[in-house]
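Supplementary material to the annual report.
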Amino acid sequence: MAIKRRDFLKLTGLTLVGTAASAAVGDLLTRGEAKAEEEYASPPEALKGKRWAMVIDVKKCKKGKEKGCNEKCIEACHYLHNVPSIPDKKKEIKWIWEDEFEHAFPEQTNEYLEEIFKDIPFLFLCNHCDNPPCVRVCPTKATFKNEEGIVMMDFHRCIGCRFCMAACPYGARSFNWVDPRPYIEKVNPEYPTRTKGVVEKCLFCYERLAKGKMPACVEACPEKALIFGDLADENSEVSKILRERVAIRRKAELGTGPAVFYLID
Amino acid sequence: MIEKALVGSKKYWFWVLFLLTIIFIGFVCYLYQFKIGLGITGMSRDVSWGFYIANFTFLVGVAAGAVMIVLPYYWHNHKVYGKITILGEFLAVAAVTMCILFVLVDLGQPMRVLNVIRFPTPNSIMFYDVIVLNVYLLLNLICGWTVLHAEYKGTKYPSWLKPIIYLAIVWAPSIHIVTAFLYQGLPGRHFWLTAVMAPRFLASAFSAGPALVIIAALLLKKVANFDPGEKAIDSLAKTVAYAFIANVLLFIFELFTAFYSGIHSHQAPIKYLFVGLEGHAEWVPFMWAATILAIVGILLLVIPQTRKNETTLVIASIAVFISCWIDKGIGLITGGYTPTPFETITSYRPTLPEIGITLGVWATGFLIMTILYKIVLEVRASTELVVKYEGIVYKK
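Predicted assembly:
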């Protein structure tokens, strides 16, 4: 029973390749989807939805601003999620922010509308699209859509390629160009801080929903200008409002199916 | 064969040392970026890709362009390319290596790059780009090295190589088509959302790649006594001419669509690049330089006298190469991010360390090219001596 050295080496090589290949195939099969491998039991108080969405009443928002609400929604969100305040505009990180009508709906701009919406603030945040381009392009599934319709981020998996930022037509994503920690005035120990080199954005407060709480911005708004709920439930507040009032979405023509609606009537 | 790269003239070592110095500077800049983060670059929330990805895109083209030499030689038995085919293959090796390096230096978390393999994601074009680029690198390395080794041993290359050579040929366009798909499938980026992106990429690739081979071959002729053959260079010059004219035409088609349709969002990036928009005109001089170079290149390439003259041909090739680099590098990336999704403009300028890293990667590519070309020349010289000797014998 003599095995030649050459044959032995061949066999060893084949075995190694085979083992590696089967491991790789196994990985492909199990990791294919962002499915939970074991069942997670959500706490009984958790808010559950099939299609979370937000409706923003821009006129109420304006009223709040006039009364001096001081952008409580932005403040609450950015404090709770350890969003740093970076002075350099080009490198800033924001999850929810205020801008003008013509930047929200550049394709709708005309002088009359501009006049009508002149002093009305528009809040920008991730649109948690039905068909999110960012999820489509992410090469590692670091950004993915969960079963409640929220576009999620895994900060630990993100390799920082910024393909999602190129793909997002809403400019909703921010990148940590440098270590963000020195720019966080007061750290909230309940939420992770991020490291340099990863992308982040609004996550519809999935961590608060799990505890039965509304998103931070919704809770913080004194005018109740932000309404949050499940579009799949036709008795939810958001569904009722959208049936009755005129709401528009940013760049709906791109087929992304944004879940943030702006009430403009 | 690698030992052949370890002996050389003073000129050779001076050039290698020069490249190593630039690589070192680039490496130091990269260490700085690795420590601080991509914040040391000029990129921003609005222009989130910059110089690195621009050079990456351009070099994918250079790599794919090498097929314009390999294909006629192996498929159509275009014998005049016999001496330069391997230059094309090794150019592809150097260019793809640079591409991979440019992607790596652009990552925010380079230590996590293997996540792309750990969590394969077939809906991401990036996934396919990683595959096609790495396979293309491997194919060219195998083809070039095996053929050269056969030459070194004085035999014909083994028959198992033939299918690999053919695979490398059909694989070449794929790397550039997939790279174009990175861009042209994104909603909301007006400048990129166009079906002619992939054809444009191919046309610019098939002009910039062979142009670089012409420059390299004629340079080697001057400094290393390498004779690429007059007919080979003339054939290649025609390839560059046709491909580059196609490239310019495709761009003009873009202009027509944007301006005849009257759609503002399609016009805005082009206006920004060529005449400036809302007071921002960062890249206007570059785009006009590219335009002038393109005109000069085309004129020199279509007039037979200037195309056949080596000096003017080199000038034309350099013009084409730089023009493609500006158009597909800087223009494509900044144009894609301008205006922003809010129809505002955020300017982008690469910073010094960013340029340092970029030059470092280029120098790495040139070093790989130098070493591989040096081996080719030495192997050729060692076999040619016999021929000359025999020639003399027969003559006598």
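The mean pLDDT of chain B is 91.
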